[in-house]
Design a protein that fits this description.
Shape: elongated
Radius of gyration: 22 Å
Structural class: mainly alpha
Largest sheet: 2 strands, antiparallel
Number of strands: 2
Distance between the termini: 56 Å
């Protein structure tokens, strides 16, 4: 299972996303049953064909890492405990 391109390019991100998506593909309610190696091979062939075609030159561009998602703590009214207390007291 070898990456078809450099890990820092947009093509690598597409390769990995395609391989993960292939694990969830169903055909007439049945999974395709591809092994991990087969999924990465299909994804690699797809990315290579797109690169060879020349229509997607941005696949060779360096991808910028995405910033981490902001963490958000739940407010006081978003917890189950708060709702249960309100229900018990007859507030709601």
């Amino acid at each position: 299972m070898m990456a078809p391109i450099s890990k820092s390019t947009k093509g690598f991100a597409l390769w990995h996303a395609l391989a993960m998506a292939l694990s969830k593909v169903r055909l007439a309610r049945f999974r395709l049953g591809l092994s991990e190696e087969q999924r990465y091979e299909v994804a690699g062939d797809t990315v290579r064909m797109l690169q060879d075609d020349g229509r997607w030159p941005e696949l060779n561009d360096i991808s910028e890492p995405r910033p981490p998602a902001p963490s958000r703590s739940p407010g006081p009214y978003e917890t189950n405990r708060t709702v249960k207390i309100k229900l018990a007291r007859g507030i709601v």
